[in-house]
Specification:
The chain has 268 residues and is mainly beta. It has two domains: 75 residues, SH3 type barrels, CATH 2.30.30; 143 residues, Porin. Helices cover 10% and strands 54% of the residues. The chain is built from two helices and 19 strands. A hairpin with a 5-residue loop joins β10 and β11.
Length: 268
């Protein structure tokens, strides 16, 4: 009888010692007896039940379903998933680089001016070769950016001509590569305002920007003008002044439209 009482007391003590420990219920269905020391946002700090004076362990909260403390309190575990710090790819891209394209020149004052310079009738479709330089003056968290662009080009080389032009633009590029720009342009045909839009496509580490630029035609109105010129009168043999009236008229500069494509490698 004495041994039975001792055995019962030992069993009760053992059961009480079990319930006096904290228990971790894991997602794999197992249960671990521990002494929970501290619960962090992403992990649980504990010691093993069988070795309370031993080393300290940490277990990720993503592996734990609940904690049952020695006082019977239950804590369900919801691990906080840390979001990866991913920077939009577009915010690391630089689109400056070589440009090639075609320009169409509408008949008008600008084309007539170039015809006079080269003393020939220029084909209205000319090739373009150049480079786009860009600087960002702001970049948003989603990768969108504000740009300042400088684009020097040379056209007409397929016709044996060298027609320089230069454009400066202020633009905006979205995180997905769509862009808009506006700025002054200067060429042998005169000056104007250029409006540009485009998008970009990626293949591996290479970016292919495609843009279309438009320079609208400007209407110029001229008043009556008296033009005086000196000529030699063949009858008198003397130089005389001849006056001609150039009547009021309207001229159009003619629009210009350019399609360009470029490429560059991805860089920070």
């Amino acid at each position: 009888m004495k041994w039975v009482i001792i055995a019962l007391l030992s069993l009760v003590g053992f059961l009480q010692s079990i319930h006096a420990q904290d228990r971790l219920f894991l997602k794999d269905g197992s249960e671990v007896l521990v002494q929970v020391l501290e619960v962090f946002s992403e992990s649980i700090k504990y010691k093993r039940f069988e070795n309370p004076s031993g080393p300290i362990y940490f277990i990720p909260k993503t592996e734990v379903v609940r904690i049952v403390y020695q006082n019977g309190q239950i804590e369900e575990i919801t691990a906080i998933q840390k979001k990866p710090d991913i920077q939009p790819v577009s915010s690391k891209l630089r689109y400056g680089g070589p440009r090639i394209g075609l320009t169409y020149l509408q008949a008008g004052e600008s084309k007539d001016r170039m015809n006079d310079i080269f003393e020939r009738d220029i084909n209205p479709i000319i090739t373009q070769f150049g480079w786009q330089f860009e600087t960002r003056f702001f970049t948003l968290d989603n990768g969108a950016a504000g740009l300042i662009e400088l684009i020097p080009m040379f056209g007409g080389m397929e016709q044996g001509l060298l027609i320089p032009s230069i454009t400066a633009m202020v633009g905006y590029r979205s995180a997905k590569g769509f862009e808009l720009g506006l700025g002054p342009t200067l060429s042998l045909g005169g000056s104007g305002i250029l409006i540009a839009a485009g998008s970009s496509f990626r293949s591996g580490k290479v970016v292919f920007p495609i843009n279309i630029a438009f320079i609208p035609s400007v209407t110029k109105s001229y008043q009556n003008v008296l033009i005086e010129s000196e000529y030699l009168n063949p009858i008198t043999g003397l130089y005389e002044i001849k006056t001609e009236l150039k009547p009021a008229h309207t001229e159009h500069t003619g629009f210009r439209i350019t399609l360009t494509i470029g490429f560059n490698s991805r860089s920070k």
